[in-house]
Input
Amino acid sequence: MLRYLALKAGRALFVVWAAFTLTFVLLFVLPANPVDLLFDPAELNTVTPEVRAQVAESYGFNKPVVLQYLARLGHALTGDFGNSVQSGRSVTATILDVLPSTLVLASGALVLALLVAFAIALVATSTRRPWVRNLVEALPSGAVSVPVFLSGILMLQIFSFQLGWFPAFGDRGVKSLVLPVITLAIPVAGPIAQLLVRSFATEFRSGYVTTSWAKGATRSGIIVRDVFRNAGLPALTIAGITFGNLIAGSVITETVFARQGIGRMTQAAINTLDVPLVQGVVVLVAASFALINLIVDLIYPLLDPRLRAALAVGSPRAA
Amino acid sequence: MTDVPEREEDPLLRIAGLAIDYRTGRRRWTPAVRGVDLHVDPGEFVSLVGESGSGKSTLVQGALGLLPPSARIRAGSIAYSGVDVTGWSDQRMARVRGNYVGFIPQDPNTSLNPVKKIGQQVIESVRFNAPDARNAAQHREAALESLRTAGLKDAERVFHQYPHELSGGMKQRALIAIALAGRPRIVVADEPTSALDVTVQKVILDHLMRLREELGIGILLITHDLGVALDRSDRILVMQDGRIVEEGPVRQVLENTTHDYTRRLLDAAPARQAGRLEPTSGPRARPTDTSPVLRARALTRTYQLRGGRGRRRQLRALDGVDLVVRKGTTHAIVGESGAGKSTLASILVQFTAADSGTVHIGDRELTGLGRRELREIRRDLQFVFQNPFTSLDPRFTVGKLVAEPLQAFKLATGKQERTARVVELLGAVALDESHLHRLPAELSGGQRQRVAIARALAPNPGILVLDEAVSALDVSVQAQILQLLVDLQAELGLSYVFVTHDLGVVRLIADDVTVMKGGVVVETGPVEQVLRSPRHEYTRELLEAVPGAGINGAGTSGGERVGAAIAHQA
Output
C-alpha cells in the first residue's frame, strides 16, 4: 500500500516538475534573447541597451542557463514564480486572486457533467422502450458537437436577455455561476456519458446480472445494486482527466460571460508575453491535473476490492 | 413417464411444446427451440445434453424468463407446479425466480459481482425470497446456513470475502448457495462445471446429487458432456437443433439408443473409447525408430508476482521438468489449471524462456539460440493454439492464413506454386478449394481448427505442439479433429506434443503421457501403463474424476453394457 502511495505521489511530482522544466526551456532558453520577451513588442526598439542589461541582470539572464534553472526551480519550490511583467505583482498572488473563481466554475461543471452523464446512462439502461434508449443515447454526441461559444451565447440570449432569469455577466453570487457552469459542463458531459452508456450496457449483460435475475431481483434493483458500482468506475478515471481540460478550457466560458479567472488571465498573459505569469499558470494547471489524478488513483482501491487485494501484499490468499 | 403410477401432484417444471425464435432481421425469425416437451419431478435429476447451438441454453433462459430482447416465445407453455408462467412480466417472474426455481450459472468466474462480498450476495438472495419480513440478523444466519449447505465448511470466512479471493470451485459453491438461499423446489444448472477442473467438477456434481437427496429438490442439469449426464442422472434428454431427439432413463438410453445423433455422441465421447484411435487408412504401424526428437531436461521457470514487498512473492510454474518425445509418436501432457503444462508447451517452442534447463530438438539445443537460428528451428517445430476463434486473424482469408508461413519461410515462391501448396494442405485437413476465400468468421469451430492445423503443417514440420487444441470444440467435432491428427501422423510421420486437461482425450491419441501438478511431473510413461495402473495418487484421482469413467469401471456388467452398446452400433 505504501509502495503504491509513494509510486503515485512520485508520478504526480514528476508531472509538475516536467511541466516546470518544459516551460523553462520554452520560455527562457529557446528564445534568442529572453530579454526581448520581457518588453512590450511595440516599445522594443525604444529600449536602451543599458536598460536591457539592467533587466537581464535583475532576471539573472547573464548567468549560465543551468544556474538560472536551479535558481528558478529553487524559488518555485517556495511558491515564488517571480513577478508579473505587466503588473509587477508577484505571480503567485496574481494567480491566487483568480484561482478560486475558476476552481468553483470547473468543479461545478464537472459535478454537473457527471450528474448528467450518469442520468443519461441510467435512463438508457433502465428503459424498456427502444426509442427512449435511442433518443437518450443520441444526446452525448449532440452535446459534444455544439461549440462552447455557441452554446454560451445561445444561453445568454435565452436566459439572460429574453427571460432575464440569470445575470449575463459578472461573478457575484451563485446566480451568476449558473449559466457558465452549464455552458462548460455540456461538452464535457458528452464523452463521459458515452463512456458510461457503453459501460452500463456491457455490465448489464454480464454474468453476475444473470445471477441476480435468478435470485429474483427486479430490473431497477439490479441496476442500482449491481450494475451501478461496476459500471461507474471508469467515470472516475475520465473525470480526473477531464478536470485538467476544464481548467484549461475555461478560457472561452470566462470570455463569453466576462468572468475573471485563470482562463482569461492566461489569455491576457499570452497576449502580452508575460513570461513569468505564463510559466506560473502552466505549472499550476499541471499541478492541479496531477493532484486530481492522484486523488482518483487513491480512491480507486477503495471502490474496487480487486485492486485493493493487489495492493495489500502478503495477505494470505485463499487458494 | 410410464413408470410413474399416478400423478398426484404436478411436476416441478413442465415445458410443453415450447418454441423460441431469435430475430435475425426485420420480420425475420430463426427458430432456436422447436417444440420441446420436458418435465422434472420432485427429487428427480434430469440432464439435458446437447452440443453448442442445440438450443439448450435458450431453452433454460426461456424457462427462467431470461430471454434476451431479440428472442420471443412463439408457442408452448412453461409451468411450475402446475402454474402456467408463460408470458409473465419481469415483475411477476421475479417472484418465481429464486423463490421457486434456483439457477446455477455456467461460469463461476464472471457470475459473482466482483465488488461485493459473498455474504452480501447471498443475503440478497435470502431477502428477495423471504416470505415474511425478517430482520438482518436472521437474513445473515440464513445466508451462512445456505453457504454451509453448499459445502463451504468455512462459511464465516467466505461470508466476508470477495469473489476474487476464492478459487473457481469455491465460487461455484457460493453460487450454489445463492441458488439455494431462496429455498427453491427445483434447481436449474447450466453447465455448472464446464469452467472447472475435472476433480473439482466431480466434487461439485457429487454435492448436487447429495443436495437432491437431502432437500428433495428437483435438478435440471444442462451439459454438453454426455459422460457427466450418464454418471449422474435419473433421466436424460438429448437435444439437437432445437428438438429433443432422445429421452429416457440412463440405462434405456445406453442400451437402446434410438436416435442416430445420440449414437454419434456416445461414439464421440472420449471416455467411452476403448483405446487409441487407428488411422482411417488402416492399422497403424508401430513406429520402429523411437529415437527422441525432442528432449527437455530440468526445465524451471519462476514468475515474479507483482506487488512484492521485501520477500518477493514467486510462482514456480515449472520445477525441474523432464520430457522426452519419441519420433512419430504422441506425447500427452495432462494436468489441471495451474499445473504448468501451458508454460511447458511455450518453453518447448521458445515463446517463453526457461530460467534453467535445456530443450533439444534432435541434436540441436534450443535454449540460448539466437533469433535467426530459432526461426530456422521453427520450420520444424510448429504450434497449434487452444482457441480457434482467436488464433486466426479475422481479416485474413483461409488461403492467406495458410500461405503466410510459406511466405515467411520463403518456401513456395511462385504464386501458382503457393496456391497449389495451400490447396494441398487444405486437402490434408479435409477442407477444399472452396474454402480458400472464406474468412474465419464464416467457418465453424472445427473448420477453423482445421485451418489452424493446415497453417501449422505448411512449413513441413516434424513436430507439432498442440496446446489444448480440441478443448474448445464440441465432442463430435473434437472426435473428427483427433481422427485427423491421427491420420496425419500416420501419413507424415509427425511427432505431437499434446497438451490437454482431458484424460479421456489422452487415451485416444497418446503413446506416452506425462501427468503434471503444480509445476512438477508426478508421473510419466506409456499411456497403457499410466492409465491402467497409475502409480501416483494424483493420477488415480484424475482418472476417477473423468466423467463416464464411473459407468465404465463400475463393474463388469457396466463395462460390458457399454462395450455391447458400442459393438451394437458398429
Observations:
- Chain B touches chain A through 45 residues (CB under 8 Å).
- The first strand of chain B starts at residue 13 and ends at 25.
